[in-house]
Specification:
The protein is α+β, with helices and mostly antiparallel strands. It has nine helices and 16 strands.
Length: 301
């Protein structure tokens, strides 16, 4: 099989592992810098060029699109889809997951457990937003934030109001969510590949840090998740339309609640915590499922 991987940094652990897993299985894989691609959007002849040359025909594409280049990355991925190249995750599904508000709306529609989440445009509605979210402490989250950046914990209604009004006054869109105190600064990341959870880890934030992101000094360990947590992760992936993703959940008193669905999950933390070959399972999924034109949307929507 001939595989393209869209990635700006070929030296990241996740990207090196995917290359290694593909090559050890006898497949050819090219790492393509997303931002150096350019497209010929010709009628019935879609093409992608890279470093001055037209890219060859690939059987599958693995999109590892950074949040900062989502718009352009999805445009390139759509072009591959138009060329009947099988995507590990489709452009429409990635777009859903990158929009925090839309992803929450889709998860809520499907009855998946969520923290109470509110959203408003007018700063004058701040007090009503606080009331709907259940009052402080509250988590205030930028719609565009990643890796814990742009996430604030407000301990009091007064501080929450100040943060919300400051963000909205600057024209920044935010979500306001209830704080799941009983989670104790830990969360669960479940890795879903092809409609099943293949690994799970528990992440704990650094001392004094409510965010559990490993990029912020958190730690991780392998964990056995419950049947309900497993089902929640699979349903969340299905709601987004993602074949491969990391589903971040908190253990609330009333059951698991989904915080985020990550369409390009890092592999280092979960592979080292669990000892499971996630990269290999991703390549195996591609081999078993990649067929020309086998995309649900073909770049539409």
């Amino acid at each position: 099989m001939k595989i393209a991987m869209m990635a700006r940094n070929a030296n990241l652990y996740s990207h090196k592992r995917l290359v290694e897993a593909a090559e050890v299985r006898g497949h050819e894989i090219d790492v393509i810098n997303t931002l150096q691609c350019y497209m010929n959007i010709a009628s019935r002849r879609p093409e992608v060029y890279y470093n001055g040359e037209k890219l060859p025909k690939y059987d599958a594409v693995i999109p590892r699109i950074g949040a900062s280049v989502t718009f352009y990355g999805l445009a390139v991925l759509r072009q591959f889809e138009m060329m009947d190249v099988f995507p590990l995750n489709e452009s429409v599904a990635i777009g859903r997951s990158r929009d925090k508000l839309r992803s929450m709306q889709l998860l809520a529609r499907d009855g998946i457990g969520l923290p109470v989440t509110t959203f408003a445009h007018d700063p004058k509605q701040t007090e009503e937003v606080l009331r709907l979210a259940g009052g402080s402490p509250l988590v205030i989250k930028l719609l565009e934030g990643t890796q814990g950046i742009g996430v604030v914990l407000a301990d009091t209604d007064r501080s929450a109001k100040s943060v919300i009004e400051a963000f909205r006054g600057a024209g920044v869109n935010i979500l306001v969510q209830e704080f799941i105190k009983e989670a104790g600064g830990t969360d669960i990341r479940a890795l879903v590949v092809g409609g099943r959870v293949v690994a799970a880890m528990q992440r704990k934030g650094a001392e004094g840090e409510f965010r559990s992101n490993l990029h912020r000094g958190g730690s991780a360990q392998s964990i056995k998740i419950s049947v309900v947590e497993r089902a929640t992760a699979v349903r969340a992936a299905k709601a987004m339309g993602l074949n491969v993703c990391g589903v971040d959940m908190l253990r609330a008193n009333h059951g698991p609640v989904v915080m985020e669905v990550n369409s390009s999950p890092g592999l280092e933390g979960v592979e080292k915590a669990t000892g499971i070959d996630i990269a290999g399972q991703i390549i195996d999924f591609l081999v078993n499922n990649a067929k020309p034109g086998k995309t649900k949307t073909k770049g539409k929507g």
